[in-house]
Amino acid sequence: MTAPDIRPLAPEPTPDAAVDAPASRPRRARARRPRRRTVLLVAGVAAVLVAAGIVAALLVSAHLARQDALAELATARADARAASAGLNLAQQQRIDAVEKLEALLGHADAVTAITGTGIDPAATEQLAAARAAIAVPEVDASPVEPAGSLPLDEADTAQLRAYATAQHDYADRLDGRAEAERSAATQATADADTLTAAFTVFAEATVEEGDALLGERADAADDAKAALEAAGDALTASAPDALAAALAAYRAAVDAVVTSSDAARTPASGHIGTGVDDPTSLTVVVNKRRALPANYAPNDLRRPAGVGNALPLRAVAASAAERMAADMAAVGIQLRMSSGYRSYSRQQTIYNGFVAREGVAGADEHSARPGFSEHQTGLAADFDDGAGCNLNVCFRDTAGGRWLAENAWKYGFILRYGDGWQPTVGYRFEPWHYRYVGETVAADMHERGITTLEDYFGLGAAPDYG
Questions:
Q1: Contacts with 136 (C-beta within 8 Å, 6 or more apart), sequence order
Q2: Which parts of the sequence are annotated with region: Disordered (predicted)?
Q3: DSSP-based three-state secondary structure for 357
């Protein structure tokens, strides 16, 4: 019988097998290498994708930042354009307001230059004070420097933002200038309203003065009185730009009333109109339309005693000047003379000298042509008090100037060329020039408020050599 096969199902390991067992591990390691490469590849791709995402995010962020900067710049530019338009509007408002104010100031000057009978001096002073208190507002005229320029395609975000800031600053400066312009316009408008109100007050006060004159001169002709009333109504209804012309017409109407009244009173005051054409008369009237003979010279000239720098006058005028000088000295005022009698030839020399320096028009403002000078009568004197205002308008405000203005009529002297009388007498204000007309005429003129010989004798104005 065959013995059973008892070999194991699997051979037992031999020593060689045990030695060779580790050799199988490298084969397993090689089998796992492809999976590691995959992991590394995936990781690399992921890193690339992350990097790309970061770059993309940065690019998007930079783009958005630039867009924001451009939007901010657009807003700043719009603000600057709006501010520029606002400044232009404010400048025009200021220009319009200032032009209106300057016109009103000129009208005020023209109105206050007109004085005389029928015009309340206090009303004139009030209007002059209102005008003097107003100054034309001024603003900074220098240009507002712009923000400059920037090539936008080449500018980075930081540059864009800086440029936007500069544009905002430019807009702010434009707004500041516009505010100054608006403030000046507001001030000019307020001043114009104030001056306009002052015109109204002046016109009303002047008409009241005219009404008072009509009461005093009730003996004037009815048509003259009616014309003055109409002129007063026109005066109060006049706009500022027409007020000076209306005032001149009113003054002419006042003069017509006074002349008419004087004519009605002639029988009661027989000296009116006497001797106005006679060079030897104390009431001779000499002006730019009434000349003296070239060869006329008084035959009774003498220098008044007690008068500083005494110059020749006719005897009757010299005596009056002596009494006046004595009374002035009693109150501490010295009476001096700058001019007295002048011959035709002497006046010609003086006048020609002024013409050489100032021209004919300039000379005619204050110097008579030969033959047309009151000094040739021997009845006119240029007085002074030694206070430093000889032949100067400031003489009006000296002690001597004030004393003469208040008292000279008592001695037979009248102020001949008063402030604002040029349209009638032909010469600008000379507070030093006095004319002797005799105590009777001087007192009558003072009592009746008549200021010029032309008005007193009804001879008409003599503003020029017409």
A1: 98, 101, 102, 105, 188
A2: 1-33
A3: helix
Same domain? For 296 and 434 the reply is yes
How many domains does the chain contain in total? 3
Does 275 lie in the same domain as 263? no
Does the model's pTM come out above 0.85?
Answer: no
452 and 320 within one domain: yes
Average pLDDT per block of 10 residues along the chain, 466 residues long: 41 44 48 67 75 70 72 82 87 90 92 86 91 88 79 78 82 86 90 93 92 84 91 92 92 84 51 67 94 91 93 92 94 96 94 94 95 96 96 97 97 96 96 94 93 93 92
C-alpha distances (whole Å) from 115 to each of 188, 204, 232, 350 are 28, 15, 15, 29
- Looking from the CA of 455 toward its CB, the CA atoms found within 13 Å total 27
Q: Which two tokens stand for residue 334?
A: 């010295």
Q: Which position has the token pair 């006119």?
A: 380
**Are 429 and 451 in a shared domain?**
yes
CA 247 – CA 113 distance, rounded (Å): 10
What span, in angstroms and rounded, lies between the C-alpha atoms of 184 and 90? Answer: 9
Residue 191 lies in a domain: yes
Strand runs (DSSP E) across 285-427, as ranges?
A: 301-302, 313-314, 336-339, 380-384, 413-417
Cα–Cα distance, 430 to 395 (Å, whole number):
9
How many CB atoms sit inside 10 A of residue 62's CB? 12
Mark whether 325 and 226 lie in a shared domain.
no
Q: Check the CA dihedral 305-310-315-319 and report its sign.
A: negative
pLDDT digits (tens, 9 = 90+) for 308-323: 999 999 988 999 999 9
**Residue type, position 265, single letter:** R
Please give the residue range of the domain that contains residue 384. 271-456
Q: Are residues 402 and 384 part of one domain?
A: yes
E strand spans, 112-250 = none
End-to-end CA distance of the chain: 188
Residue 100, judged by CB atoms within 10 A of its CB (0-12, 13-18, 19+), counts as middle
- Both 446 and 303 in a single domain? yes
Domain co-membership, 306 together with 421: yes
Distance CA 128, CA 278 (A): 41
